[in-house]
Design goal:
Radius of gyration: 18 Å
Order of helices and strands: EHEEEEHEEHE
Distance between the termini: 6 Å
Number of helices: 3
Structural class: alpha+beta
Helix content: 10-25%
Strand content: over 45%
């Protein structure tokens, strides 16, 4: 198997990926010190990742706050054949990872402002789909310390 890995350094490209993608996976330590990975929709705003939970969410109740977490999105890309690689690739993807400290957001005004941004990202006018925000009562923020992105082609 051959692989070509290229690190993306253009912050504008990375932030566009974070703004446009709809879902990712957060990896964090729960209270019992087990590693938990949770797929989730998210909001990228002001260089931080925001995730929302409903009032009964077991994952939220078990988060160890003020610890380091990682959040990753992966987007499959169109396979581009290149003579430089010396092989015919069968896959290509762009992976973006945000690492930072997970913090609880308690201020109601901030949560309401974030809900509006979240609604703008996830509500669709074409299908008439409206989000039910009455169930969302808790929010967390990944206070970004590092953002990395790689493009991998292989096969």
């Amino acid at each position: 198997m051959n692989r070509v890995i290229k690190q993306i350094r253009d912050l504008e490209v990375i932030e566009k990926e974070l703004a446009e993608n709809k879902g990712g996976v957060i990896a964090l330590r729960a209270e019992d010190d087990k590693l938990v990975q949770v797929p989730t929709p998210f909001l990228y705003k002001d260089k931080n990742v925001f995730i929302f939970f409903n009032g009964e969410d077991e994952v939220y109740e078990n988060i160890q706050f003020d610890t380091t977490v990682t959040f990753t999105i992966i987007r499959e890309e169109k396979i581009r054949k290149s003579k430089k690689t010396g092989f015919n690739p069968s896959y290509s993807f762009l992976a973006t990872t945000v690492s930072g400290i997970i913090r609880k957001i308690d201020e109601a005004k901030t949560i309401e402002e974030l809900k509006q941004s979240y609604a703008a990202k996830y509500s669709t006018k074409e299908t008439g789909s409206e989000l039910d925000f009455t169930v969302i009562s808790k929010a967390v923020m990944i206070d970004t310390e590092e953002i990395k992105a790689i493009e991998e082609t292989g096969g």
